[in-house]
Automatic annotation (TrEMBL):
This is ABC transporter permease. It holds the Pfam family DUF6526. It comes from Neobacillus rhizosphaerae. The chain crosses the membrane at residues 15-39, 45-68. Keywords: Membrane, Transmembrane, Transmembrane helix.
Length: 144
């Protein structure tokens, strides 16, 4: 696998992030245009409203289809990093760390992880700042 670093760690799934997003946006715009035209022409109003509502349902499902697995991954990452912290330092992660900070810390090498996690709490580092501070990158090829 290709080495990861700050510039190359972001992963996307092209079919979901590009194709589906464009199709959803295009279909949503089309249903809105159809609904406005139907209302103005006073024809097919019920059909246009039903199509618009169905499209809104599909958009909501697509959003949650992305968010729910990410929440599950975030919980797993917090558990993994808590275990890692306990193995390395004998202590769990500071509860003041947000989940986004913990997710960013997972890229830190074992040698810099304890100090960087303390620094993240003390300076309230943003996740992006945590990633930029990492010297030895620990790759994560599983999360999209």
């Amino acid at each position: 696998m290709k080495n990861q670093d700050y510039k190359s760690h972001v992963r996307v799934h092209p079919i979901y992030h590009y194709v589906l997003s464009v199709l959803l946006l295009g279909t949503l715009v089309t249903t809105i245009v159809f609904m406005v035209r139907s209302i103005n022409q006073e024809e097919n109003i019920l059909l246009s409203i039903i199509l618009f509502l169905m499209m809104m349902i599909i958009v909501i499902v697509a959003v949650f289809l992305r968010l729910y697995p990410l929440k599950a991954q975030d919980r797993a990452i917090r558990a993994e990093e808590n275990l890692r912290s306990f193995v390395l330092t004998g202590q769990l992660l500071d509860s003041k760390l947000s989940i986004s900070q913990v997710v960013a810390l997972r890229f830190a090498d074992d040698k810099e992880f304890p100090e960087l996690s303390k620094r993240a709490v003390a300076e309230n580092l943003k996740p992006d700042d945590i990633k930029k501070a990492i010297q030895n990158w620990r790759a994560d090829h599983n999360r999209i």
